[in-house]
Amino acid sequence: MRSPQSLGLARLLGANKRLAIPLLVVMATTSVGAAFATGAFGPAGSSGHAAKTSAAAASPGAAPSTPSTATTSSTATTTTPTRTAGVRPTPRTATSAAARSAARPTQPSSASPVSASAAAAVAGAPAAVSSPSSPPPAAGSGPCGVKPSAATTGASGSRSNSSVTTLGTGQVLQNANVSDLVVSGNGVTVRNVQVNGSILVTGDGAMIDHVTAQGVSISSASGTTVQYANIGFGQGDGIHVTSDRGRLVRNVTLRYNYVHDPRVSSTAHYDGTQVRGIDGLNLSCSVYDPGAYQHMFNAAVYLEDANGGDSNITVSHNWLYGFGFSVMMDAANVSLVDNRVGGDIHWGLCRLGTRSGDPNLQSTGNVDDANGAAVTLCR
């Protein structure tokens, strides 16, 4: 295995899964790759790949200080504001599976065109394009209003290429194309941004809205919201939450995200969202769809008893397709409510851990996506 210093951020979130990140102070125009080259990320920590449980192995028989304004290129704006598995669902029909396969998104190109209006804007001022807004609820589409897809999530419209790699306290990055991105300050907003690698959040109170990225990792940072994100084609977990820097993650919101089509190696373990230490998580109205089952796919949602444990979690109104298990959990005070499961589920709907068990587990209203029949999820 290559040393952590030789890995990009996408690899940090990938098979190695090591996120012991000390506080970073990186110039805005310094690439994340350069930070690794100089050893700025330090040695790997306790949230590593070796600690992760494989679904296949588990199965039977198998007020902040005043920040500076980051400079950008072109018009990207970076501103500082004043138990056992349950009943398996009925597989989707061949027609449905074929239709879904045909509709699967393709991997985005490494560069996106910049419009004339964006090119005419001044760095540090808003580009001549409106940031996307959350779509209004659609009649008859349920409590979520819209089922996330490539059409309703991720960056869109005119954006410009930016050299920004790190965001400090209070900064806003919008309408941009960047490489790997580190959110190290508090109260940062990232909106309508395509990240050609992954996003690492280490500062509190981040808003990650309408981004396209290979992965998002939250490391000992609280109050993070990730919404309307298109997360796919990465080499690690779609969303990875870990309390790996000696501070428990609290109060994270993940909603209206589309997590899909990983590109992990045959020796990796992939989860749509893996959580290793949290108090307070609301995961709702999101689609998890890795495609046809492969042995690397653990769970759509994996609540692991690590780094202080997981508690006070609501997983509701999601579409959980495929994986070894829909849910793997070893956590306390969990609510699994009104989720739809289906697709190429290999082992079963749920695997419960042996340490935390399922104290105060509530599991109601979960159904088979294909026929609406009630299913038993983690009870």
Count of discrete alpha- or pi-helical segments spanning 4 or more residues: 5
Instruction: Classify the oligomer.
Output: single chain
Helix content: under 10%
Low-confidence segments, given as residue ranges, are: 1-51, 59-74, 83-87, 110-131, 135-140
The biggest beta sheet reads:
17 strands, mixed
Structural class: mainly beta
Termini separation: 40 Å
Task: Quote the average pLDDT.
Answer: 77
Rounded to the nearest angstrom, the radius of gyration is: 20 Å
Shape: globular
Kindly state the number of beta strands: 26
Q: Indicate the proportion of strand residues.
A: 25-35%
Write up this protein:
The protein has 379 residues and is mainly beta. The chain contains five helices and 26 strands. The protein has helices at 9-12, 32-37, 55-58, 94-102, 116-120, and strands at 77-79, 160-161, 166-167, 172-178, 181-183, 189-195, 198-201, 207-213, 215-219, 225-227, 230-232, 239-242, 249-255, 258-260, 273-276, 278-284, 287-289, 299-304, 310-316, 319-321, 325-329, 332-337, 340-342, 348-352, 362-364, 367-368. The radius of gyration is 20 Å and the shape is globular. It starts with 8 loop residues before the first helix and ends in an 11-residue tail after the last strand. Residues 1-51, 59-74, 83-87, 110-131 and 135-140 have low confidence and may be disordered.
